[in-house]
Design a protein that fits this description.
heterodimer; A: 298 residues; mainly alpha; 13 helices; 72% helix; B: 635 residues; two-stranded antiparallel ribbon; two-stranded parallel ribbon; 24 helices
Chain lengths: 298, 635
């Protein structure tokens, strides 16, 4: 029991994922800054930002449902925390791959409900974009992950890791590589990173669903986003490159994160209909191709 | 009198009282449905019961279905007391609800195809009448429902006849037929039509969205949302495992999986673009059946368990959603999404119940809808050992689930969150009690999935199910609570004392009073994507509506025949003006009909009598349809 609480709250659960996630967002900001010939922030900047937000007053828009407006951020945090505890557990713990896919829906749903509750027209537009983005990336994400299931014959994450330890990494095969590429783009969208930052689109929607948020609730949203920066690439690394939480694994994680940062810094923001077409067309096609190759044993 | 007979004849008898004493109808219906619930509990606890008269039998599976049906009927009658107060034709309303309950009991407990057919046919009449109560425009919808359901009943008669020819018995489960010969397959599809029309599987779904346009919310919650699903899926499960043998990797299994996946995706895409609350929910009432058909169609115990569990879950959350929709309509006088908004603050209990049911139908863990979907997905993954098509069914089911979430985001935004000047107050407790109870049940069935529903409702029917995944709802819920407290802790680390309320920020400009995003056009982008745009346009022209298609075909062919008859006079016999010839033709048709019936029904006196009764029921249903349809359809 104590071990479980420790796993859940400290390592590899909440605290570890939060720390690693904050560092990941720092790395993202630093690399982006260097690419734009800026100096970039010091390593503790994301944490300092959170601390600053905690000190700010909390402003609730007039006439909103406070329970939804203030409760939504908490549910997003709960979803990502639970996933961080599940994906590194070698023994069956709480849930399998399907459960993880569904729990990963909680952070976007939290943003959507929060934005919708805030009654701002720009937030509503942002929320609808976020939901459409979910619809868009869900299809290739599912196809890519179940390509791995087809190859490993299991939906238990521990089993998928064990299979890769015995028979080689997923990404080493052609089908695994294609599936990884499709899943990577889905993760890019799940992170709301450029080119898929259209729900928040600062220039048009002024942060969209988060527009009315301030103080501690905004800090919780930011923390959730930071944790996703660790959990999602790590999830991809576990599924496609094997797990283990050792220095090797951290290297794999950094490779995935670097890819995400590179995509982010080399692409302009897409329009929502283009994003839908991209994910349901070429990206899903790539994932389907991966599935067919896996079925043929490639 | 046998307790099983009570479940049938008490409500049907009481319905007569409702027709006569209209003032006391509500109270009487409440008492009778409460007695029905008590009887349901007693039968459920007893396990096995028999009644020689009408050849009824209760066993754990049918007993659990009747328990669910009587429970939902009781809640919906309670809800109706205030909701329907002051409406016209109340005596009929409660009377038909009671007939539905009695006939449903008969259909659940029947061990004999003819008894089943009799009650199945009887169910069509209250369905027709209840939908017709909706006022303007309800007549057409009611007629559509009766045509589809009644037509499927007629196919069932043929199917039952074929089964009798093949096995020589009319007992349900008297002999297990492998689906090999063409005749067996025809019989299967004929009977399947009855189950599918009742449950609303595509392409026999058209009556559900049509009914939602005018029928009162409790009628929708009772019939298309819950009771008809229980009945249809019950019949489907019995057909697939007690009468015929559906094995994994068979052509029939493939057909069921394909039709189920199509129903999920097509109906949910329809739901995404609706702009009326009740109609949007009706499309989900169609879409959700797809999951049950997929689960049962796998032919694996895991899938059947998932499908049946989903049937119970769907009955709970879908009636909850319709009842919440009704409460919204009751207080605001409209279900038009563009006219509603901001009700979360003024109707908090309705909102809470709606939100839980909406999360449940979207499959958000740890609620009940997630568990049954999770079981179905596992059974599809089990199929990976057989062929590669499983990924299509799985992707349709999971993407359908995301689309379901999307359409409930739309409703929640348009009705409860978002902006509006609505000043509606919370409804009377008899109206919110039913949805709140059902929402609580969603949570209980989700958290205690293994301890309660799977153990008591599903295991007796399906037996052992081998899970291939892991899901621990109680642990998950505990951990979610822990992380929620961590989040709250962060809130309290923050500057909570400085909580302020300010007007919303719109770029520093003053927002016009009507400046809101109603949410109605949230998914117009999806609608405009190229291949989907074509499908949507075809859908708006009703190309996927079996009923409209057949009506169009009928109009087209009759026009063509009339033209032919004008060219070559007398070639189409029934267009002749010769009266004596018409009578002769009719006589010949009736004689042929009687001959066929007689050949089918020579197995004994009892069967003939029950069979004639069933035929009379169906005929009466059609007669009533003709009479009342005529009086409604003056358009």
């Amino acid at each position: 029991m104590m071990a479980m609480i420790f796993n859940f709250l400290i390592f590899p659960g909440f605290l570890f994922a939060a720390g690693a996630g904050l560092l990941a967002t720092w790395l993202d900001r630093k690399v982006t800054a260097r690419l734009q010939y800026r100096v970039g922030p010091p390593w503790f900047q994301p944490l300092a930002d959170l601390a600053k937000l905690l000190g700010k007053e909390i402003i609730v828009p007039e006439g909103v449902s406070r329970s939804v407006f203030l409760g939504a951020p908490l549910f997003g945090l709960a979803g990502v925390t639970l996933v961080s505890a599940i994906i590194f557990s070698p023994a069956p713990f709480v849930g399998d791959l399907i459960v993880v896919i569904y729990l990963l829906m909680l952070p976007p749903l939290a943003v959507i409900f929060g934005g919708s509750a805030s009654r701002n027209p720009l937030s509503a537009i942002g929320a609808s974009r976020e939901m459409k983005l979910v619809l868009a990336y869900e299809l290739p994400f599912i196809l890519a992950l179940f390509t791995v299931v087809l190859k490993t014959h299991s939906i238990m994450i521990g089993e998928i890791v064990r299979y890769q330890n015995l028979s080689g990494l997923m990404i080493g095969s052609l089908s695994g590589l294609f599936a990884f590429a499709a899943a990577l783009l889905a993760v890019q969208a799940k992170l709301g990173a450029v080119p898929f930052d259209l729900p928040e689109a600062e220039q048009e929607l002024a942060a969209g669903p988060l527009l009315e948020y301030s103080g501690a609730p905004l800090a919780v949203f930011r923390l959730t986003r930071a944790m996703l920066y660790f959990v999602l690439p790590a999830f991809l690394a576990v599924i496609f490159m094997g797990g283990g939480l050792d220095p090797w694994f951290m290297l794999k994680y950094l490779i995935v994160l670097t890819l995400i940062i590179l995509i982010k810094n080399t692409n302009p923001r897409l329009r929502i209909d283009h994003a839908l077409r991209l994910f349901w067309g070429p990206v899903s096609g790539l994932a389907a191709l991966a599935f067919i190759l896996a079925w043929l044993g490639k | 009198m046998n307790i099983l007979l009570w479940t049938i004849f008490l409500p049907i008898g009481a319905s007569l009282l409702c027709f006569i004493f209209r003032r006391a109808a509500g109270g009487a219906a409440l008492i009778v449905s409460a007695v029905g619930l008590a009887l349901g509990a007693k039968i459920f606890l007893a396990g096995q019961l028999l009644s020689p008269l009408l050849a009824l039998r209760a066993y754990p599976f049918s007993a659990s279905l009747y328990l669910a049906a009587s429970f939902l009927t009781f809640l919906i009658v309670l809800y109706s007391l205030k909701f329907m107060a002051g409406k016209e034709r109340l005596g009929e309303y409660y009377g038909y609800i009671l007939i539905t309950l009695g006939a449903a009991a008969g259909a659940f407990f029947a061990t004999d195809f003819l008894t089943l057919l009799m009650f199945w046919g009887l169910l069509g009449i209250p369905l027709y009448m209840l939908i017709g109560l909706g006022g303007d425009g309800a007549g057409g919808a009611a007629k559509k429902a009766l045509m589809i359901v009644g037509g499927a009943d007629a196919l069932m008669i043929i199917g039952i006849g074929l089964v009798w020819c093949l096995t020589g018995t009319l007992r349900v489960g008297g002999a297990l037929l492998p689906l090999e010969q063409p005749l067996t397959v025809i019989a299967f599809f004929c009977l399947l039509a009855g189950a599918f029309a009742k449950a609303g599987v595509m392409p026999l779904h058209g009556w559900i969205p049509a009914a939602a346009e005018s029928a009162p919310a409790p009628v929708l919650a009772l019939l298309p949302a819950s009771l008809d699903k229980l009945l249809g899926i019950y019949l489907l499960a019995r057909l697939c495992y007690d009468v015929f043998l559906v094995t994994p990797n068979s052509a029939v299994s493939f057909f069921l999986l394909a039709l189920g996946s199509l129903t999920i995706m097509a109906a949910v895409l329809g739901a995404l673009v609706q702009h009326d609350l009740k109609k949007l929910l009706a499309f989900h009432a169609v879409s959700q059946v797809g999951y049950m058909v997929v689960g049962i169609g796998t032919g694996l115990p895991l899938g059947v368990a998932g499908g049946l569990f989903h049937m119970f879950n769907n009955a709970i959350y879908k009636s909850c959603l319709f009842l919440c929709g009704g409460a919204v309509e009751f207080k605001n006088g409209t279900t038009d999404l563009s006219k509603l908004g901001g009700l979360a603050k003024t109707m908090p209990l309705t909102f809470a119940a709606f939100l839980i049911a909406a999360f449940s139908i979207s499959g958000v863990p740890p609620l009940n809808g997630f568990v049954s979907k999770w079981l179905i997905y596992q059974s599809l993954i089990e199929l990976s050992k057989i062929n590669a098509a499983w990924i299509i069914w799985l992707a349709a089911a999971m993407l359908g689930s995301a689309c379901t979430a999307a359409s409930f985001v739309k409703i929640t935004h348009a009705v409860f969150l978002g902006r509006s000047e609505a000043k509606a107050r919370e409804v009377h407790w008899t109206i919110w009690l039913a949805p709140v109870t059902l929402a609580a049940l969603c949570v209980v069935f989700g958290l205690g999935a293994y301890q309660l529903p799977l153990r008591f409702l599903i295991a007796p029917a399906v037996g052992l199910i081998g899970l291939i995944g892991v899901w621990d709802p109680l642990l998950a819920a505990g951990l979610i609570l822990v992380s929620l407290s961590v989040g709250l802790l962060i809130y309290f680390l923050g500057n909570v004392d400085a909580l302020k309320t300010r007007p919303i920020f719109a770029g520093g400009e003053e927002l016009p009073a009507a400046g809101k995003v109603s949410g109605v056009d949230f998914y117009d982008t999806v609608r405009q994507i190229r291949p989907l745009a074509l499908i949507y346009r075809a859908g708006e022209k009703r190309w996927f509506d079996f009923y409209e298609l057949s009506a169009a075909l009928l109009r087209w062919s009759s026009a063509w025949l009339v033209r032919l008859d004008a060219k070559i006079p007398g070639i189409i016999p029934w267009l002749r003006r010769d009266r004596a010839f018409k009578i002769k033709l009719l006589g010949a048709l009736i004689a042929a009909e009687l001959l066929v019936e007689g050949l089918l029904l020579v197995s004994g006196v009892r069967e003939i009598l029950t069979g004639l009764a069933a035929l009379a029921m169906v005929a009466a249903a059609f007669y009533l349809a003709g009479r009342l349809g005529g009086s409604y359809a003056n358009e």
